Automatic annotation (TrEMBL), chain A:
InterPro entries per UniProt: NepR
Organism: Novosphingobium marinum
Record lineage: Bacteria, Pseudomonadati, Pseudomonadota, Alphaproteobacteria, Sphingomonadales
Region (Disordered): 1-33
Recorded superkingdom: Bacteria
Name of the featured protein: Anti-sigma factor NepR domain-containing protein
Residue ranges occupied by any Anti-sigma factor NepR domain in the UniProt entry: 29-60
Segments of skewed composition (Basic and acidic residues): 16-26
Pfam families for the chain: NepR
Automatic annotation (TrEMBL), chain B:
Keyword Lipid metabolism: no
Region (Disordered): 166-186
Record's protein name: RNA polymerase sigma-70 factor (ECF subfamily)
Gene Ontology biological process terms, A to Z: DNA-templated transcription initiation
Protein family: Belongs to the sigma-70 factor family. ECF subfamily.
Signal peptide: none
Superkingdom of this protein's organism: Bacteria
Any one Gene Ontology molecular-function term assigned to this protein's record: sigma factor activity
This protein's UniProt keywords: Sigma factor, Transcription, Transcription regulation
Basic residues bias (residue ranges): 173-186
Stretches assigned to the RNA polymerase sigma factor 70 region 4 type domain: 111-162
């Protein structure tokens, strides 16, 4: 089964993300904190509606 | 419990674990691709691949590591096929070059995203796995199908490059010239 990647249609950066201090804290470089913030900011996002189809496919595929 | 019931319970457990991993897959894919729309496509394709191959997953092992490996392999395959690395957010990349010198000395997470895209795919995934995803070097090496020493080297070089890129971002805000980033391979 082939799932083609869709082409981008919307804005490429949805919104401005929070800042991080480039000097860091606790002896850790600021970018390391920024990298984790970037990762964690996505973790906190709700799944977009487009994932509803995925969930339906998984439900439908139970009997595969 | 009948055999059918046990299989059904295993399938439900697999599905539950897979769904719980989706946010992590999105975060990893976002860092790899730099594009939310491409990242979500990657995650959906990864989830379908994982579901189709669920018989090959060993219960009790890390679903996150298993699905991350599927995602990175699919991403690199798509990268080779479509050369998507030249298709990341050019507009955002250009922002690095046009910042006013009087802007406050703070970096935005968008800048981190752009900086990540300046790394080679191998270094980008390495620093995402270890620096953001919290995997050990050994786990990250297994996901990336490379030696632990190679993974350590990729992470060290990625860290060095990110520090240089983001430091130069600060320099450009102060009106000082940016330094070129050298070395994009292992």
């Amino acid at each position: 089964m082939e799932y083609a990647l869709s082409q981008p249609t919307g804005p490429k950066i949805p919104k401005k993300k929070p800042d991080f201090n480039p000097d860091g804290k606790g002896g850790e470089p600021g970018w390391a904190d920024g990298l984790r913030q970037l990762y964690n900011s996505v973790l906190q996002e709700p799944l977009p509606d487009s994932f509803d189809d995925l969930l339906k496919k998984l439900d439908k595929g139970k009997d595969d | 419990m009948t055999e059918d019931t046990a299989v059904c319970a295993d399938t439900e457990a697999f599905k539950h674990e897979l769904l719980e991993t989706l946010p992590h897959l999105r975060a990893f894919a976002r860092g790899l691709s730099g594009r939310p729309d491409v990242a979500d496509d990657l995650v959906q394709e990864t989830a379908i691949k994982a579901w189709t191959a669920r018989d090959r997953f060993t219960p009790g092992t890390s679903m996150r590591a298993w699905t991350f490996a599927i995602l990175r392999n699919h991403y690199l395959s798509e990268l080779r096929r479509n050369r998507r690395q030249v298709d990341y957010d050019q507009e955002a990349a250009e922002r690095l070059l046009v910042k006013d010198a009087d802007q406050e000395e703070r970096l935005h997470l968008d800048d981190m995203q752009v900086a990540l895209q300046e790394l080679s795919p191998e270094r980008r995934e390495a620093v995402l796995l270890v620096g953001a995803g919290g995997f050990t070097y050994e786990e990250a090496a297994q996901i990336s199908d490379c030696a632990i020493g190679t993974m350590k080297s990729r992470v060290a070089r990625a860290r060095s490059e990110l520090a240089t890129i983001l430091n130069d971002e600060n320099r450009s805000r102060k009106g000082q010239p940016r330094k070129p980033v050298k070395g994009k391979t292992d």
